[in-house]
Amino acid sequence: MAKLTPAIIILSLLTLFVAGQDSAIQFPGDSNTEECHICSSSSQLQEPVGSPYENYVDHVIARGINKLCLEINQKYQEINKVDNTVFSPINIAGALALLLLGSNGQTFHELATVLGLATGLDIENNSERVHEHLGQIFRKIEQRPYSVGEDEQQINFANAIFVQDSFPIRKIYKETADSLYKFEIFNLNFETEPVKAQKYVNAWVSDRTVGKIKEILSEPPLPSTKIILASAMYFKAKWEVPFLGEGVTQRRPFYPNGRKSPSEFEVELMGLGSELPYLKDKKLGCEILGLPFKGNQTVFYVVMPFASSVQKLKEFESRITEADLESLAEQTVYQKVLVSIPKMTLESTLNMKSVLSKLNVHSLFNPELANLGLMSPGVASTRGIPFRKHAEDEFLINSLTPSSSNPNDVIIVNKSGHPINCSSIFDNTNNITTCEEIAGDYKGEHNRIKRKISNYGDTIDSLRHLINQQSGDNNYQNPGLYASRIIHKIFLSVTEKGTEAAATSLIALPKSFSKISFRVDVPFIFFMRHEETKTILFWGSVERPTPYFNTGS
């Protein structure tokens, strides 16, 4: 049987610098479709499970991510004149959530606002509760339906912090992030070995994206780099209803200016005839079709405005809301539909700094205003302190000046990125804790949802309040970390694989099969949604599908 296998790989990368450390730091309508008769909705296949309050929190988080999705799409297109815009809002939100977890002050409020968490939730006092729910959403998305094999669906998230050797990360931040999200931490030497650090980060990217994205750092990081935060997502799945085989896919004209205007290029259109979620919405002026993946847990929705063209699509995108998207998906009903959709390979690298700045995230990129004090205490308190010498294959991080009640509030990591066997040595003269890790294999599970903080005594919210109360204490100063770049790189491939025989057996559809024809040969948008959490995993606005073939007309 012919199969269509989309492989989606997304990675967000954030490079953080420290301000004020030394002089080396650089500041850088087709509207002729018949009405549908309601039978069943694709959204009814996944119902939320949990208490009303838990469902409410999940709903606020999902709405926030979906709202951010539309805002990124709008702002990115304002800044960049591109034919296609593709990105993963859930992946971008995951990277921003790791920053939110370690932020304070203005940076905390700006990140909470852009994520849609500042309204309807007590994010100021219960941010950790919100992070627990977001972590649960990631786990639900990763969980494969029992009826679906590993070869039929894979969804994996991965997060990592690459830290300058000798730069501290707060223990409570590391343990909280590790408990709520999939999290790895690695020591690199940006100062003296930037090329080696570049290769290491790119190797991590390649490994976590199964070789689809081989490079995200095109040049070595600056020697002043202190932290690189990376977030990756890998998605691969098979359709619930397979498309016809390669023998059926044919080049057909694509009409960027509408079907009434001449076409200058062709695309490869794949074919399918089946019962699929469909809706024609006269109020919003569009059609929507759902293509479920195996298990019906995730659905790939395609939306076309009536009489679509580049201009019509931009107008549609400017007025649609996250509530509209949810309503469209919720109201789809299974109907017999003949589908033609482009075969696509889309790859994009987004500079998220300019987009987020337009969404009022300013302090994160300002060396004087950024506050990531819960991620790291900085290194000011450890200047001039001699380090114990260590072998080349060992990694050492200096700690901040500890409080008398808690000398172990900074995490020390080994080369593999995971604490294995730590021996603390307290130097009364310098009041410094130095901890050397013994490298070893780490095979811990990452499916924990609840935090398991080891005897810290405070939640990360309590630490935030403590820092704010004792802002004059050197132990709790702003470390001066700020973001220089936020890179979001994505690769999407939609292709068919199958036999000619399978295609032949599926072509024999009677002409009376359906009056609904969904032919995607004009500009369109698509989004991939996880049905239980109602979260958009992937978004695309397409004016010129790639590959395309010029006709010369």
UniProtKB/TrEMBL annotation:
Serpin domain residues are 70-545
Q: Which GO terms describe its cellular component?
A: extracellular space
> Which parts of the chain span the membrane according to its record?
none
Signal peptide segment: 1-20
| InterPro entries, per the entry | Serpin_dom, Serpin_fam, Serpin_sf, Serpin_sf_1, Serpin_sf_2
UniProt-listed Pfam families: Serpin (PF00079)
Q: Name one GO molecular function term.
A: serine-type endopeptidase inhibitor activity
Its keywords, alphabetically, are: Protease inhibitor, Serine protease inhibitor, Signal
Q: What family, per the record?
A: Belongs to the serpin family.
The protein's name is Serpin domain-containing protein
The protein's organism comes out as: Diabrotica balteata (Banded cucumber beetle)
